[in-house]
Write a structure and sequence with these properties.
The chain has one domain (3-275). The protein has 15 helices and no strands. The protein has helices at residues 3-25, 35-56, 61-70, 75-78, 83-107, 109-119, 134-151, 155-173, 180-186, 193-199, 204-207, 217-221, 247-250, 252-257, 270-277. The structure holds zinc ion. Zinc ion (ZN) binds next to helix 5 and helix 6.
């Protein structure tokens, strides 16, 4: 195992354990299904996603960056820019790309079918932050690879970005609630748990907000930031009405097959019928 994989994994496991313990003892919201039922599907997707991306793309993003350096393509590989600057711009550009990728997955119906797997979870906790359909993970990898090549990102930027992306996804999906005062201060810069839960609302105007995974400034800059939901955090309706929380909907095979079939239209609510069009 190379050093970067070790550090990425250690950091990820560390923050996952801290958040999972915190949400066990200080949960912000009550889960409609047991942990065992939801975690089987959510963590199963992580394993399938890792296997699919490894098989489909045997080269990692760091490998792509090293290749671009070797063949001298990408802006930073052609210009003489200080390393610190190329790392900073690389990390920021990758984060911005993920913000827009997330918006695109909410806008294009075919992509929404994939991303809906993330939103159908009727509860939000640490494992929701990892629950993505393998095809969404693959597409996201390709988008990131394009940014890495176009920019000539240094490998250091990718390691920092990937560690941050994983850590923030686990952090802001955790089922905890910070004291409101802290939340207000922290959300000036970061996407907090309460702010991200608004993105998981069943209401279309709320799920079309707070797309950022880490910092809150992209949402503020591009007009998608929502500091407060219509309902209090405790009463917020999370998930998708056309997929009510059930053991069946939470199963690994259901999650993998979900993008390929439409739910019974008679079970859709107004808000989710609109959601399908966006
Ligand atoms: Zn989303």
């Amino acid at each position: 195992m190379d050093n970067t994989v070790f550090w990425r994994l250690s950091f990820f496991v560390g923050i996952f354990v801290v958040m999972a313990v915190l949400e066990s003892y200080l949960p912000a919201r009550h889960a409609p299904l047991t942990r065992k039922v939801r975690w089987y599907g959510n963590l199963g997707l992580v394993v399938v996603g890792a296997l699919v991306s490894r098989l489909a793309l045997p080269i990692t993003l760091v490998g792509v960056a090293l290749w671009a350096q070797e063949v001298h393509i990408g802006a930073f590989n052609l210009l003489s820019v200080p390393l610190w600057l190329s790392i900073a711009v690389g990390v920021l550009t990758l984060d911005l790309a993920i913000y827009w990728q997330h918006r695109l997955f909410h806008t294009i119906p075919l992509l929404w079918r994939l991303h809906q797997v993330h939103h159908i979870d009727g509860h939000v906790d640490t494992t929701t932050g990892l629950r993505f359909h393998p095809l969404e993970i693959l597409l996201s990898l390709l988008i990131k690879a394009l940014v890495v090549v176009a920019l000539g990102c240094p490998p250091e930027a990718i390691v920092i970005f990937e560690i941050g992306l994983n850590a923030f996804a686990v952090f802001n999906h955790a089922n905890i609630r910070l004291p409101q005062k802290w939340d207000d201060i922290l959300s000036k810069v970061l996407i907090t748990q309460r702010v991200h839960r608004i993105h998981h609302s069943q209401q279309l105007n709320e799920s079309n907000s707070n797309f950022g995974f880490s910092v809150s400034w992209w949402d503020k800059l591009f007009g998608s930031y929502k500091a407060r939901g219509e309902k209090q955090d405790e009463q917020l309706e999370i998930g998708q009405a056309n997929y009510p929380p059930s053991r069946e909907n939470a199963g690994l095979w259901s999650l993998l097959a979900m993008p390929f079939h439409q739910p019974d239209p008679s079970k859709r609510s107004t808000s989710t019928a609109n959601q399908d069009k966006h």
